[in-house]
C-alpha cells in the first residue's frame, strides 16, 4: 500500500499551530515515514489564521499537495477556509460549538480541543490534544508520540511534560470511537535521513564555509537562518550582531571580511534593496561577502510571511554599473547546505560577492533530507598575513591574468592594505586615469572565465522528452513530482532544475533545450524571470510558463493541470 | 621609535591651499608617531568626502568606503580583529548626515574606534551645499534663501547617547588636536573628536578668523567625568566654543563584552571540523 496523506492543522496565531505540526512531523519521521510540513502564517502575533500542512508518505515527498485528507480546525475559520480543499471522504475535526454533521462530501467530527485540554491542566494544551487526536486517527502508536513529547520537552519542568502527555492521551481517547478511512498500520522503521528546514540547512552550510561573523537586521523570512546561526554560535567562534539597518549589516560584513573573517548576512528583498549599495562596494573593493536573500512577495512590504521567486532578475543586476558575481538558488535543504558552504569558498577565492536566493517556502518548511550533511575536514584560505614577495611594495589590486590579486590582511604583517571604493590604481589609491580605469574593469571581469568553470550544469530528469519543465530554486520538488505524474499519464515529459543561476550556464542549458520540442518554465513570479533569462542567454524562447505569485507555494497538481490545459 | 616620517605618503594631495584638513593631517601624524604606533598596526576607515580622502595622504592600512558607511565598516573590522587600532576619518555630512543612524548606534555599542569628524559645516566635495552642521540661515547656491534648519549638535548628541569620550578640536590648534587624538586612541571604547575647520572655498561664514575669535580651551576645573557639566558645555549659552575633552569615562567596549574575543581575535581562530560535526549530530530539529 502506498501512503500519501495530507493533514492540515489550523487555528489562530498564538494557538501553537507550528508546535503541533512540529510534534506530528517528528512523530512521523521517527516512525521511519517520509514527511514534509509547510508553515503558513500571517504577519501578526495573535489572531488571524495560520496553519501547518503535513504530507505523510512511505515514499519521498518534496512538495505539498492541494488535496487534504484530514483537517484539524482549532477555530471556526479554519473549517470555512479549508473545506474546499478536502478530498472526498475526508475528515474534519472541529470544536464543540459546531454541530456534528455528516455532509455528502466529507465527514465532520466534533472534538472539544480546549475542553479536553482543560482537563489535562490548561486550555493552552489544545494543540497537543489536536496532535493526539490526529495521530490516533492516523494509527500512530501513542507511546511513539509520548516519546517525541519527552524528547521535545526534556529541558522543561516535569509538570509541563506531564501535562502535555496527559493532553496527548486525552486526545487519543477523544476519538476512540472514530475511524479514519486512510489510517494504516504503523510499521516502525528507522528514521529516514534528517528532519530539517532550509533555514537550518543554510546555517549549517555557513559553518561548513567557516563563517565567523554575521550582521543582520530582522526581516521575515530570513530571520530563521540567523536564529539558527545564533543558536550554533554558542559552540563555534562566530559573532553575530544585530545592525541598526540593512545598510549597516552589509557594511559590517564587508568590514569584517576585509579584516580577515568570512562573513555573511541574510535578508529578504526589501533589505536586499538597501544592501545594493554595499553590494557594489564589495564588488569594487573585491571584498568577499555572502548575502542570503530569502525571497517573499513584494514590492515594498508585500506579503511578509509568504513565498515568492521574484528577485532573480533583481539580484543578478542589483547595483549601479557591472561586475561579476555568483547567484545560486538551492532547491532543497541539502542544496541550501552545500551551496552556502560553496558560496563562502567561491566568494573568497574569486574575491566577489555571492548571493543565495532562498524563499519563505524553502526556509520555513520541514523536509526529510536523506543526503549526508558532512563537515568538511579542511577549509582553504586564500588570504595572507603579508605579501611574501615584497611586503613594502604590496599592491592590493595588482593586475594579474586571472584578475585575482593576492589578498593580504590589514594589521597582520608589515604589508599595508589599501582599499578604496573610488576607482583605484593597483596600490589602492583613487585614480581618474582612463587607462587604469580600463585596466581595472578588465581585471574584475577577467575573473569571469574561471568563475564560469565553477558553474555546475542543471540537473535533468528524462532529458530526451518531447516536453521539458524547467525551474529554479525551491520549485524543484513540485516540478519533479509534476514530471512523474505527467509521465504516469503517458506524456513524454522531463524536468530541468537550475541551482547555479549566475554566471548563467548558457551552454549547458542551451544544449538541453535545443533537443526539446517544447519547454515550459515553472516559477513563482509574474513575468517568467527564468524564461526571460533563458531567452537572453541562449536565444531559446519558452513555449509557455506555469506561474504563481499569490505568495503560496506551488503544488505539483497545479503544474500538471496548467501544462495539460496549455497542451490542449 | 616611530616618527611622523613613517606616516609620510607621496600620493599627490589636491585639497585646496589653506584647507583645514592639512592641520588635521599633521596632527594625526604626530599623534600616531607620539603613541609609537607603526603604520602597519593602524587601520583608518573613511567614508566619502574631502575628509574621507585623508588616509590616502598617510602611510597606513585603510578602507576608503562609501558615503556615510565608515562606522559600520569600522565596526565589522574591529569585531574581526579587535587588536587593530581603528580610526575613522569622516566629515560632517558623512558622519552626521548620510551616516547619522550609524553614528547613533556605534555610540550605543561603544565600539572601540576613534572618530575624527572634520566639521567644516559645509559640503566640499559636491561644491558648497549646506551640511547638517551649517548654521541656520547660511546661504549657499542650493540654499539661496538660507538654511531652514537648526544645526546638528554632534557633541550634545554623542553625550546624550552615552559616548564615553567626547572632545572638540580645531584644525588651527595642531598641538592640542594631536593630544586630543592621542587621548581618543588611548580611550577604550567609542571616542568622538569633532574637529572644527574652515572651508576656504565654500564656507564664508565660519572662517579661520571666525573660529579664532570664539574658540577657547575648556577651563581646567572642568570635571571630565561629569556628564551634566559636559552637556552644559556642549549646549553652550554664549558665543564661545570650548575646545578640549568635554567628557571621558571608560566602560567596557563592545568587543570587551564578547566573551569569545577575550583570548584571541576572530581572525586568529582556525576552522575546527569537530565543532560542526558535533552540531550536525545534535542538531536535529
Entry summary:
The complex is a heterodimer of chains A (568) and B (285). With 568 residues, chain A is an alpha/beta fold.
**Estimated share of beta-strand residues of chain A:** 15-25%
The number of helices of chain B is 9
Indicate the low-confidence ranges of chain B by residue numbers: none
* Beta content of chain B: 15-25%
Multimerization state: heterodimer
Describe the structure in your own words:
The complex is a heterodimer of chains A (568) and B (285). In chain A, 38% of the residues lie in helices and 22% in strands. Chain A has 568 residues and is α/β, with parallel strands linked by helices. Chain A has four domains: 4-192, Pyruvate-ferredoxin oxidoreductase, PFOR, domain III (Pyruvate-ferredoxin Oxidoreductase, domain 3), CATH 3.40.920.10; 196-369, Thiamin diphosphate (ThDP)-binding fold, Pyr/PP domains (Rossmann fold, 3-Layer(aba) Sandwich); 383-454, no CATH class; 459-567, Rossmann fold. The longest helix of chain A has 21 residues, at 434-454. Chain A is globular, with a radius of gyration of 26 Å. The longest helix of chain B is centred in the N-terminal third of the chain and has 15 residues, at 20-34. Chain B has helices at residues 20-34, 70-80, 92-98, 100-109, 154-160, 174-186, 208-212, 227-235, 273-282; strands at residues 42-46, 61-64, 85-91, 114-119, 165-170, 191-196, 215-217, 241-248. Chain B is an alpha/beta fold and 285 residues long. In chain B, helix 1 packs across helix 6, helix 3 (92-98) packs across helix 4 (100-109) and helix 5 runs antiparallel to helix 8 (227-235). Chain B is built from nine helices and eight strands. In chain B, helix 8 links the parallel strand 7 and strand 8. Chain B has a single domain (4-282), classed as Rossmann fold, CATH 3.40.50.970. An eight-stranded mixed β-sheet of chain B has the order 2-1-3-4-6-5-8-7, with helices on both faces. The N and C termini of chain B lie far apart (57 Å). The chains are: A alpha/beta (568), B alpha/beta (285). The interface between A and B is large, with 67 and 57 residues.
Amino acid at each position: 500500500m502506498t501512503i500519501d496523506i495530507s493533514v492540515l492543522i489550523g487555528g489562530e496565531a498564538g494557538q501553537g499551530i507550528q508546535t503541533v505540526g512540529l510534534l506530528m512531523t517528528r512523530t512521523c519521521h521517527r516512525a521511519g515515514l517520509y514527511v514534509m510540513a509547510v508553515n503558513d502564517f500571517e504577519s501578526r502575533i495573535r489572531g488571524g489564521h495560520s496553519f501547518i500542512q503535513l504530507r505523510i508518505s512511505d515514499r519521498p515527498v518534496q512538495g505539498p499537495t492541494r488535496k487534504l485528507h484530514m483537517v484539524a480546525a482549532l477555530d471556526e475559520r479554519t473549517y470555512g477556509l479549508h473545506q474546499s480543499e478536502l478530498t472526498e471522504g475526508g475528515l474534519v475535526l472541529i470544536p464543540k460549538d459546531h454541530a456534528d454533521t455528516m455532509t455528502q462530501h466529507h465527514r465532520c467530527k466534533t472534538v472539544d480541543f480546549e475542553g479536553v485540554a482543560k482537563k489535562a491542566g490548561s486550555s493552552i494544551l489544545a494543540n497537543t490534544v489536536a496532535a493526539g487526536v490526529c495521530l490516533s486517527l492516523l494509527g500512530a502508536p501513542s507511546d511513539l508520540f509520548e516519546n517525541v513529547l519527552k524528547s521535545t520537552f526534556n529541558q522543561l519542568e516535569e509538570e509541563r511534560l506531564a501535562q502535555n502527555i496527559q493532553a496527548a492521551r486525552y486526545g487519543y481517547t477523544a476519538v476512540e470511537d472514530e475511524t479514519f478511512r486512510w489510517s494504516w498500520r504503523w510499521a516502525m522503521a528507522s528514521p529516514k535521513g534528517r528532519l530539517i528546514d532550509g533555514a537550518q540547512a543554510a546555517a549549517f552550510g555557513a559553518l561548513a564555509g567557516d563563517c565567523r561573523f554575521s550582521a543582520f537586521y530582522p526581516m521575515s523570512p530570513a530571520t530563521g537562518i540567523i536564529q539558527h546561526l545564533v543558536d550554533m554560535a554558542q559552540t563555534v567562534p562566530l559573532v553575530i550582531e544585530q545592525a541598526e539597518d540593512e545598510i549597516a549589516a552589509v557594511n559590517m560584513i564587508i568590514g569584517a571580511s576585509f579584516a580577515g573573517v568570512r562573513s555573511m548576512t541574510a535578508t529578504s528583498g526589501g533589505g536586499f534593496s538597501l544592501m545594493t549599495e554595499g553590494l557594489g562596494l564589495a564588488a569594487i573593493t573585491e571584498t568577499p561577502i555572502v548575502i542570503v536573500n530569502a525571497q517573499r512577495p513584494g514590492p515594498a512590504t508585500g506579503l511578509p510571511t509568504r513565498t515568492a521567486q521574484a528577485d532573480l532578475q533583481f539580484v543578478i543586476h542589483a547595483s549601479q554599473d557591472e561586475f561579476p558575481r555568483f547567484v545560486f538558488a538551492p532547491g532543497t535543504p541539502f542544496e541550501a547546505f552545500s551551496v552556502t558552504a560553496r558560496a563562502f569558498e567561491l566568494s573568497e577565492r574569486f574575491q566577489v560577492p555571492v548571493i543565495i536566493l532562498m524563499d519563505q517556502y524553502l526556509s520555513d518548511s520541514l523536509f526529510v533530507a536523506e543526503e549526508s550533511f558532512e563537515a568538511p575536514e579542511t577549509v582553504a584560505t586564500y588570504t595572507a598575513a603579508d605579501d611574501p614577495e615584497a611586503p613594502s611594495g604590496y599592491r592590493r589590486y595588482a593586475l594579474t591574468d586571472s584578475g585575482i590579486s593576492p589578498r593580504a590582511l590589514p594589521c597582520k604583517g608589515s604589508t599595508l592594505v589599501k582599499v578604496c571604493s573610488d576607482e583605484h590604481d593597483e596600490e589602492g589609491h583613487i585614480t581618474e586615469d582612463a587607462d587604469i580605469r580600463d585596466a581595472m574593469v578588465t581585471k574584475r571581469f577577467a575573473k569571469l572565465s574561471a568563475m564560469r568553470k565553477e558553474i555546475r550544469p542543471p540537473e535533468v530528469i528524462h532529458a530526451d522528452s518531447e516536453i521539458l519543465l524547467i525551474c529554479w530554486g525551491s520549485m524543484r520538488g513540485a516540478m519533479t513530482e509534476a514530471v512523474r505524474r505527467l509521465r504516469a499519464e503517458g506524456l513524454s515529459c522531463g524536468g530541468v532544475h537550475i541551482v547555479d543561476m549566475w554566471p548563467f550556464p548558457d551552454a549547458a542549458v542551451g544544449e538541453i533545450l535545443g533537443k526539446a520540442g517544447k519547454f515550459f518554465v515553472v516559477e513563482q513570479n509574474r513575468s517568467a524571470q527564468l524564461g526571460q533569462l533563458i531567452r537572453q542567454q541562449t536565444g531559446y524562447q519558452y513555449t509557455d510558463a506555469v506561474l504563481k505569485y499569490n505568495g503560496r507555494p506551488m503544488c505539483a497538481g497545479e503544474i500538471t493541470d496548467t501544462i495539460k490545459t496549455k497542451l490542449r | 621609535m616611530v616618527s611622523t616620517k613613517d606616516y609620510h605618503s607621496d600620493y599627490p594631495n589636491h585639497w585646496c591651499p589653506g584647507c583645514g584638513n592639512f592641520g588635521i593631517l599633521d596632527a594625526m601624524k604626530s599623534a600616531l608617531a607620539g603613541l609609537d604606533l607603526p603604520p602597519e598596526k593602524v587601520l583608518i576607515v573613511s567614508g566619502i568626502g574631502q575628509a574621507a580622502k585623508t588616509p590616502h595622504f598617510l602611510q597606513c592600512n585603510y578602507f576608503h568606503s562609501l558615503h556615510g558607511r565608515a562606522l559600520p565598516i569600522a565596526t565589522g573590522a574591529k569585531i574581526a580583529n579587535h587588536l587593530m587600532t581603528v580610526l575613522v576619518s569622516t566629515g560632517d555630512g558623512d558622519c552626521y548626515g548620510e551616516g547619522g543612524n550609524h553614528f547613533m548606534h556605534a555610540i550605543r555599542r561603544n565600539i572601540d574606534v576613534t572618530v575624527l569628524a572634520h566639521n567644516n559645516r559645509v559640503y566640499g566635495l559636491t561644491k558648497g551645499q549646506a551640511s547638517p552642521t551649517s548654521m541656520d540661515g547660511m546661504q549657499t547656491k542650493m540654499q539661496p534663501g538660507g538654511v531652514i534648519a537648526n544645526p546638528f549638535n554632534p557633541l550634545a548628541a554623542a553625550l546624550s547617547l552615552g559616548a564615553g569620550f567626547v572632545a572638540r578640536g580645531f584644525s588651527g590648534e595642531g598641538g592640542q588636536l594631536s593630544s586630543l587624538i592621542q587621548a581618543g586612541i588611548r580611550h577604550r571604547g567609542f571616542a568622538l573628536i569633532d574637529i572644527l575647520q574652515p572651508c576656504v572655498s565654500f564656507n564664508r561664514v565660519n572662517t579661520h578668523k571666525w573660529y579664532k575669535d570664539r574658540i577657547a580651551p575648556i577651563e581646567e576645573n572642568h570635571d571630565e567625568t561629569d556628564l551634566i557639566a559636559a552637556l552644559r558645555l556642549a549646549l553652550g549659552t554664549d558665543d564661545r566654543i570650548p575646545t578640549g575633552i568635554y567628557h571621558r569615562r571608560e566602560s567596557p567596549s563592545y568587543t570587551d563584552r564578547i566573551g569569545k574575543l577575550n583570548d584571541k581575535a576572530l581572525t586568529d581562530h582556525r576552522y575546527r571540523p569537530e565543532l560542526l560535526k558535533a552540531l550536525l549530530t545534535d542538531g536535529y530539529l
